Amino acid sequence: MVAGVFRRLGSAIRGDDGRGQVQGYLKPIDTDEIARNLRLDEAAADRGSKELPPTNSQQFDGMEQQITQTIQSEWTWNGQDLINNLRAYSQRLIEFSVSTELARLDLIAKNTLAKLRDANNRAEAELGPLREHYIACRDELVEFRRRHKIRRAARKNGKRWTTLGLLAFLIGVESAFNGVFFAKGSDFGLLGGIVVAIVISFINVIVAFFLGLFPMRWFNHRNFVIKLAGLIVSLAGLVALVCLHAFSAHYRDALGIVAEGKALEKAVQTLKAEPHILADINSYYLFGLGLLWASLAIWKGYTFDDPYPRYGACYRRAESARESYSDEHSFLFDDLEDIKEETVTAAATGFTAGRIIPNLAMLSGAMPSTRWGESPKALADSAGLGPATTVMSGRPNHRGAGCFAVMSISDFPNLT
Q1: Domain boundaries, the chain
Q2: Staple partner for 306: which of 73, 154, 270, 314, CB 3.0–4.6 Å?
Q3: Going by C-beta distance under 8 Å and a sequence separation of 6 or more, which residues neighbour residue 176?
């Protein structure tokens, strides 16, 4: 008894592992489980010792009837489940029309072909000019590299807006400092000094920036004449910047000596006579600050583009053309991918609908009122299975052994 309790407890913990079952609706009846539930081993031993049932018995006794009823109830439950599913498939088949589905798939195919032809026309109209433009820009870049013996990629400055912001910052800071310096002798005080300072700072930063952007980069050119021109223009620009800041310093000194109306003339005189001598230490600060800001502007101009003249612009044209062509190409092929996915999904749905378990669904109309309490042979006859189906049955012995099965349903030629 204790062993039986532990055996049932272990079975409850393990659960049903599904062994002995096959795919489909008419799964084999687990006679071993029935024997365990009815405790047939103990009953068979007890009844055997008592010579039960009698040898001359013509009818099932109570134990045999219980076994038979248990197996028949299992059969009835599985059969009813099959009937329900067959009826469901029958309803789905009624709603499904092969000709209608084929017409729908044909319409989808024609619609897909129309979309593909439209995409082909779009590709010719939109991608063609972009591709030609990209090839032209690419050939231009290849020829530029060959002619100027360049084997590296262009150095791109990805912070162009930052550079412009820095130039504005330099102009603003220099104007503020110079405004304080020039306010000393101005008739309009700080406001007048700032106006003068803004003009000088703007000229200083802009001239220095373009000096670094153009002539100083000409030093890197392969052509000697262009190198020489860059050297001459750069030296002239640097001299002009030094003269500008020297004049600013002398002009500030002049504002402290004479009236503002005569300060310009006084500054020119002192600049010509003693250019390196200033009357106030703040004028030296003004001169040094202007040169520092000019140096920063020259550096930003030199690094604003590739060091080799015109190479950065040529490289950017080719890259922009490539990106335009690639973006349009990707956009077009994304549309084609969507068309493909829609068509494949629709076709797969139609093909799947045409294969709704035909081995069972086409039988559902033949057995709408079958009584699953009947014998397996009667079940096969009512289903219209005929002689092509093998029906096996047997009387259970004292151990409850026995099985019922209907096989080879898929062998019907009408179902293939």
Answers
A1: 24-96+361-415, 97-156+307-355, 161-216+227-305
A2: 154
A3: 194, 197
